[in-house]
Every structure is written in C-alpha cells, then in structure tokens.
Inverse folding.
C-alpha cells in the first residue's frame, strides 16, 4: 500500500483525487476480502472522507464517525495505512474508531446515534476552554432515526455551540432506512424542500444540501461553504452517497455486503436462519405472533417472515427502545411479539425491558442474537453482558440454548410461556434434532460417579466442556456435565439433587452477575465448592472468537488443570 | 367524595362540567395534602381529562398517560374514586396508571416518553385483531423532548395505524421545558405555525391546535373534531394547560409543587442539597467541572450551581441518553462532568454508561439520587437495581456513602479520580463531619472479637445495622460492623483480613447482582459463611420506605434472629 498523506490530499487536483480514491477503494476491498469487515458502507464514503481530509485539519479538527462503519478511509488517511492489513485481526487495528489507536480518532463509536451528542460535547468543551477547532459528526441516514439524534438536536440551542453534521444519506441502515425521518430526508432529496429544511432550521441548524457525496465537483465547494458557515452557525450538510460505490456487486447488494466475513468461514447453521424458520412455522398457525426488528431484518433471519407475514412484521429502524415498548404494548392486547436484536444493541432498551415488558409481566420474547464473544468487531459488539444485565430483572425467564435444535425447541415452548422470555444465542452453531423442552429445566448430558459437575451454558461452553471432558476422561478423570440452559428460573430440583461436591460453571459472558454467581448464590453456605469460568472484568477487544474466549477467561487449559487438581486432591 | 360517573360527565352542561372539575380539583388537592403526590401536573389536567372522558368511551377506548403524573382525574372518573384517599399508601391505589388496578388503565407508565410507542402498539394490535376502538396518548411537552418520542413518530408510516396524540403543553417537565423541540411547540403557540405543522405532518400526523386545555368551550369541540379526524388519520392535538391550575400558589411555583410530600415529613439533610453545595465549592476552583441534568435541576440540588456557573451547567431536557454521551464527550477534552440523575432514570442511559463512558474510561461522575427504595411512587421509581446494573461494567468505580458527610468526601475525592465514578445515595439523610476518604477503602465502624461481621452499604443499611447491633449487643451478642462504602473496587485488603467466619451483607438493592453477590464471590470456597440481605427478586410496589424495606428483605427481625442463631451455634 502506498501511503497517502493529508498533504497530498490537500494539494491534489480533482483527477488526482479520483486516483487517490481508486487506490483507497482497492485497498479497502482487498483488505476486507481477507480480514472481513464493513464493506459497502466504507466503499460509499471514500470521496466524502477524502474531501473532509482536504477541507479540515485533523487531528486538530475533530471528526466523530457515527457507528464507525465508514471510518476505513479515515484510518488509511491518518496514521494507520501501514497497519491496515491487520484490520480486525487480533492485536491489529480496530474496525471502529478508537482513541487509544490514534490521536486522529477523538471518540469511540460502535452503536448508532451517538455522533451528534458527542460532537456537541466536544464542541462545548472547546468553547469553555477558549479553543478554536472544528467539530464534525458524520452520520448515516439510518442512524438518523435513532432517538439520541433528536435528543442531541433538541439541545443545540441549549448548548449554544457550533458543529458540522454531515448526513451521509445512502438510504440504508444495515437494512434499507425506513420511517418518517427518512421520508423527510427523502423529500429533501426530491427537491421538495421548504418544510423539511424548516425542521432542521428550527433546531438551530443551517441546512445545506443535497450534494452528491461521490462527486468532488459538488463536494469540495460544498465543504468549503460549510466550513465558512460553521463560523457562525451549526450546519447540517446533506450528502448522498452510494453504498458499495465502485464495486457493482456491492452497489447491487448493499445489505448483503454491509458486513463481510473473511473468505472461507465455517459451514455452520446460523441461529438467525433457524429463528426465521421457526417464527414462520409458528406464525402460520398462530395469528398472535408478530416479529419486530430495529433495522436488521436480514442479519436476524427475518427476511422470509417479512415476506410471508408483512402485516405482522415490523422493522422500525434503529430504534431499540421504541421497538421494546411497541412489543410490550402489543402484548397487552394479546399479541405475542418476538423482538430479534443483537445482544449489545439490546443494551439500548434496558430500561424498557424493566419498565415496560417485565414490570407489566408481558409475554414478549427477546431473541438475543450475537450473544457471547463475537470477535472481530471488538469491544462495542461483544455480547458478554446480557446474562448480567438480565439476571436481576424480576419476571424474566432467561434461556441459553446449547445448539440450534434446542433453540428451536425453546422458541416452540416459548409460545406457551405467558411471561417475558429472553433467549440468547451466538451467530452460528450445530443443527440438531428438536426435542421437547420444559422451561426452567436443565439437562444432564453426561452422568458420572465422580465428585465433579460442570454446568455449561450455551454452545461455546458446552462445546468447550465436551472437549475438556474428552481429554480428561481419556486420562481417567471424568465428570458430570449439565446443560445449564436456563439461567432463570434456576432448576432448583436438579441443583438440589446434584451429589457432586465440586461445581464448575462455564458461561460465554462476564463472570460478574451471570451464571456462576447465580449457582454460587443457590449453593451459598453449602458444602459445595464453586469454580466459575467466564470473562474477566474488562472490555474485550477484537480478535478471533475462540482465541479471545481462551484468553479472557474460558481457558481449556485452566479447566483441565482444575479437573486434574480436583482429582489429585481426591 | 361524591363519585362522579362517566355518564354524568357525558351528559353534563358546561357549567355542570365546571362544577365537576372544582370537585375533582378539591379532591386531588385535599388528598395530595395528606398522602403526598404529584400536585401541579394533576391540577392542570382536570378539564382535559374530563373532556376526554366525555368524548371517548373508556375502558373500550384506551388512554396511555405518559409518565403518569397526570392520571389522578382519570382515576377519580373511572373506578377508583372510593379508594382515592388511599392514594400512594401501602396497599392503596398507585399514583401511576396500573393495569392490575383497573381495566381503565391499559398501560403502566412512570418513565418519560413511552406513551406514543405504547399507543402505536395497542392500535396496531387492534388493527390486526379487526377491532375498532380509539387509542389516545396523553403526553406532556417535557416528555416530548425524549428520544423515544421521535422513534415512535418515525414509525407512524411504517405501522400504518391511527392514534390520537394529545400534547399537554404546560411549558414544564419537572423543570421548565427546554430545547429545540420545545421551541417548535412554542412557535405553534405563538401562531407562527406553518413550518412546525409541517414537521408533524411529515411524520404522518394531522396537527390540530392550539387549544386552551383548561377551557371547555375550546376543548369540547376540538376533541369532537379530533375524534372525527382520527377515523382517517393520526392526530396530534396540541393543548395548553396551566400547571397548578386553580391553586394560585401552585400556578406560581409549578416546579416546587410538582411532587409534594405529605405534611409533616422528616427534617433531614437532602443529599441533593449537599451535591449542590459541594459542586459549587469545587467548581469555584476547578474550571473543568460541569454539571448536567435531564430536566430536574431543582430536585437534584443544582439550582445554585446553575445560577453561579450558567456557562458550565446544562439541563438538556428529559434526554438521559444524550446527557451521558455529552458528558463522555466533554470528558475526552479534559472536562470533569457530573451527571446528576435519579437511579431508575439512569436505566435509560445504560448502554451509554457502558459504550461511551466506561468503554472509553472517561472521568464522568454519575451522581445517582433516589437510590434504594424510594417509597410512594412505587415500582417504576424504586432505585433498587443500580448496584446490579453497574457492578459488572468494567472500569467503573461504585461508591455508596453512609451519610451526607461521607457523600461530600466522596465528591471531593472523586475530583482526583481519573476514571468513571458512580455515587449512589438516597433522598435524605444525616449530615455529618467530612472526613477524608480513600477511593476503594471500606471502613470498620465497630470492631469486636465476635465471629460475626456485618457489611452494610448506604445510609438505610448502616442505620439498620446499628439498630440491630444496639439491640443484640444489649443481649450480649455484639458483632463487627463495616461500612461497605465501595462496591467496586472491593476492598480486598480489608476483606482478606477480616477474621470473622460469618459475614452478613446488607444492601438497599435487589439481592441479585449486588453487594452480597460480590462479597460471596470474593470469599468463594473459603471457610466464610455469607448471609445476604437485600430485596427479593420482585418489583416493589408503593408504600412507606421503611415498611417496604422491612417487608421485601431488609427485616430487622430476621437480622436479629440470624445473629441470635449464629451465637447459639457458638
């Protein structure tokens, strides 16, 4: 990779800029092909980012990338070009902005809708400290639906500061953008502007748009103008880009190429596909069933459900809180809502899980995908807190399937469970026969006369437990293995009757507040000894799931050592 | 109380309606004077609620009261007039809408901004079930700032259903309403309407307004018209009411009379007052300090700070998420933000605590007021989850002062603590000398040779522990008492050196995921026996704090029995 400096970008002619963009685009495409990553969103914003680097002086000026799915060009243009081939690899550079990685990254992102709030905070601090630099929030039209955006716009007058908001409008979140806010942007694009401009102006923004964000002849003068206006007013610069720009198969399938896995992934069953299949089958015979998603129809496996049951399928945009309340409200009327969402994004709806769903004890099922360590997306996407943030919520049942078949069984059993239910599962796993399941009952997978029982929750942990058991059993050190498939309610009957003294717990979650603590609470002051394995109390960066799990607390070797030492003690 | 029926309301003449309102208003005022409750907000909405009961058929039609600070008239007009004198009393009726209390309450509220989402969910379920009733969301202009509102508006087109949104505009949250959204409502009130109307129309609403919500001659025809329009379109009906209407001292002090305590409360120091005093003193010498609140300046003790340091004081409206991101962003630039908020409302910013503040390890201090059981507001306002939802977040320090003096010391020590800090405290407590404190160090309050140590966290628990100790010591059964003032980091040095075998923990929080679990984790597989006291795994309804605490897990008698039984065992 030739390293392109900011100085080059600032002095280049437009044809040279186009050449630079082609180089950057190729670098992104080639790297993502090997490393995986966010492809279409980054391909679409190459020109826009180059133009921003030309117009502004980073790192003195500050730019916040909302979500961060479009920061690769910025990384290549700041100080990470030489390391770009390590993208998303363990120990390599992150796929998201990271303050610790570079002074060019002023604010870490990963979840949607924070950029304008963050820009306002940075700008206000600048004013208070008597400094004078520019602050830019780059935000997609998908994020613009999120409530945080309006909370931030609401305080523009209050904070009395100046920021540049660049709306990167490509008509997509991960799914196509939907809803009234998007319609407003759409009217602006269609030239039916006055009322829509007035909306932004009422919040205190000078509206500028719309510009073709893949065309320097429009972008460069627009940014110059925006920079001037920014001296006296906050600006909303409305830019249209084409997701996947430059690579026709990305342009034509922006949802499928939003996030790309490195070539040669494992051939496992996606839990999301199973979710879609089960919900369709259930909905066929049960008119109460509705499915809700916050802008991730495909990734959550709901495309077919949306096709077959459009009147009972709702993509409400990146509005995780609203989706929860909507589910709760539908449930008050006898519907059975299934809300599919990634583990870390559900954190956004934490209050609504408590206040709306569990407070009213309503039969909403949270289908929590990408639970546990997810890997390459890093800190903001590791689903390692959900067992902790759900376990203390009254009225909530928490299920953790050991494989795809059990997940299907849980979904089927859940239909008759007239109370809030959370099912958390990883991206992919093993397909298996669907056996009937009783809510709240664990399962003994392997029974022994040894004095050791391992309680493992979820596919990663069951698989690790089985691996450890195979290896220690070969050496004559076997143990009982329990599929701890319900964290709540705990299976008191099974736990009370476990004869073993040594109880080892495994969970794909931080140790604090999860399964280990629940089991230890159950056995408190008994003769049992409890050994908990899960993740340490720290944020887990990007890397390979298996390696990260091993490194951060689910260590096969440590487990084997424990078994050996327990056998040695007799 | 004469019971006023819906039939009367529907057939009364306007002069009769006014008489009905005077009766209702007197009943509300008299009851709140005795029971405490939300006064000004309820006084302001008497006419509006009466008019809604006249225009619609409850419970067939459904009404959702956003937050619920304005539902008293509805309770009096539905089926709770005879029980109204039990308002907010233990075992009596709730101060908020409660489905379990009456079929006239279709959706429980308590936190801001859920009503439109909930109305949409109920309306959509109605459509799917082929039913035909009206759904109304009654929401104040203060709540209208909340991000959830825009998430809900965004999905009006998507859901393709019809609801009536009544905006009760009294210019207030608990504090005066602020921000751009409020300015838009303000322009509508001032008659500068076209752009603002267009905003709502772009989201799919027919705008009707503004009407005087305390005047039947405007209200009755407006509601008739809205009801007609609702057959073909969702409607936003903009109504102006006067908070405190009818009681001049309420009208003149709507913030002070928003929530009223029963006559003859305890004379304790408010923690919020101490917060204000300390922050002012610190800010005097430290220009990095800023204070942020989400629409509760006075209740959180920040009025004087806002007066003295207006450039460093930010009320961003009911936007808990935005406030957190703003704090994180200011902290990236070297500022030291203090974000004061009630415990249950901070649940709204859960993801931002993780993603923005702790993920970036920024020195933001969360001043978490109304932690622990708060009493009369019931389920949605009991601050009994914060220790659980904070304890597993990496990089966060969690402090629990035992009295007001210690709270002051924590705030002072916190200024030099270059990392995220959460301090959780109840409404009021004992003033005491300010002694220097070291972050992360617990304090031995009373040392004995007995085999029992009690670790108590926070004022309610320390006070209970001392009471128990006084009583058991009189009978010769003393124990060591530790002020467990930091849940995180745990004071390993002190805990390792505690000689006692029996460790009792007390916390003003649910037992799952709090102090008891942390201490048990620390001592796991040691010879120690751990006995945890805190609240059971259930939502705690309204009542007297002391009685609720006793009933739900912090029982003095149970503690004494435990001490006695431990002594008996020798």
């Amino acid at each position: 990779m030739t390293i392109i400096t900011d100085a080059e970008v600032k002095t280049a002619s437009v044809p040279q800029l186009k050449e630079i963009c082609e180089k950057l685009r190729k670098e992104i495409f080639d790297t993502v092909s090997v490393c995986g990553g966010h492809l279409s969103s980054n391909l679409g914003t190459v020109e826009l980012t180059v133009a921003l680097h030309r117009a502004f002086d980073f790192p003195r000026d500050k730019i916040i990338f909302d979500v961060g799915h479009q920061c690769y060009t910025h990384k290549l243009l700041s100080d990470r070009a030489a390391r770009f081939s390590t993208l998303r690899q363990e120990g390599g550079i992150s796929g998201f902005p990271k303050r610790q990685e570079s002074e060019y990254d002023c604010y870490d992102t990963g979840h949607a809708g924070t950029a304008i709030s963050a820009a306002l905070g940075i700008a206000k601090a600048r004013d208070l400290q008597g400094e004078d630099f520019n602050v830019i929030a780059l935000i997609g039209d998908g994020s613009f639906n999120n409530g945080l955006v309006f909370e931030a716009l609401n305080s523009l007058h209050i904070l009395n500061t100046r920021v540049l908001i660049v709306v990167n409008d490509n008509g997509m979140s991960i799914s196509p953008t939907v809803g009234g806010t998007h319609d407003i942007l759409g009217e602006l694009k269609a030239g039916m502007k006055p009322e829509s401009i007035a909306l932004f102006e009422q919040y205190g923004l000078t509206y500028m748009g719309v510009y073709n964000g893949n065309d320097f002849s429009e972008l460069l003068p627009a940014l110059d103008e925006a920079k001037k206006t920014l001296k006296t007013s906050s600006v909303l610069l409305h830019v249209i880009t084409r997701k996947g720009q430059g690579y026709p198969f990305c342009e034509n399938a922006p949802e499928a190429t939003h996030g790309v896995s490195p070539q040669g992934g494992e051939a496992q069953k996606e839990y999301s596909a199973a979710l879609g299949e089960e919900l369709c089958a259930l909905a066929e015979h049960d008119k109460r069933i509705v499915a809700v998603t916050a802008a991730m129809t495909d990734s959550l496996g709901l495309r077919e459900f949306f096709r077959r049951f459009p009147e009972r399928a709702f993509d409400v945009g990146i509005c995780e809180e609203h989706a929860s309340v909507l589910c709760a409200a539908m449930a008050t009327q006898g519907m059975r809502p299934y809300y599919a969402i990634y583990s870390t994004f559900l954190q956004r709806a934490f209050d609504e899980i408590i206040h709306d769903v569990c407070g009213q004890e309503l039969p909403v099922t949270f289908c929590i995908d990408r639970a546990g360590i997810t890997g390459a997306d890093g800190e903001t996407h590791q689903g390692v807190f959900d067992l902790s943030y759900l376990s203390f919520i009254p009225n909530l049942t928490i299920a953790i399937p050991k494989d795809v078949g059990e997940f299907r069984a849980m979904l089927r059993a859940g239909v008759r469970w007239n109370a809030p239910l959370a099912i958390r599962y990883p991206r992919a796993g093993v397909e298996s026969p669907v056996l009937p399941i009783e809510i709240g009952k664990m399962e003994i997978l392997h029974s022994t006369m040894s004095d050791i029982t391992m309680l493992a929750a979820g596919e990663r942990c069951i698989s690790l437990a089985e691996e450890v058991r195979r290896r220690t059993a070969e050496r004559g050190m076997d143990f009982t293995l329990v599929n701890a498939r319900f964290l709540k309610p705990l299976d008191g009957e099974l736990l009370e009757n476990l004869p073993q003294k040594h109880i080892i717990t495994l969970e794909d979650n931080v140790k604090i507040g999860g399964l280990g603590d629940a089991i230890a609470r159950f056995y408190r002051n008994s003769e049992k000894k409890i050994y908990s394995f899960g993740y340490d109390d720290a944020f887990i960066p990007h890397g390979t799931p298996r390696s990260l799990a091993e490194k951060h607390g689910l260590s096969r070797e440590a487990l084997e050592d424990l078994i050996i030492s327990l056998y040695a003690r007799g």
Chain B has three domains: 6-259, 269-429, 443-569.
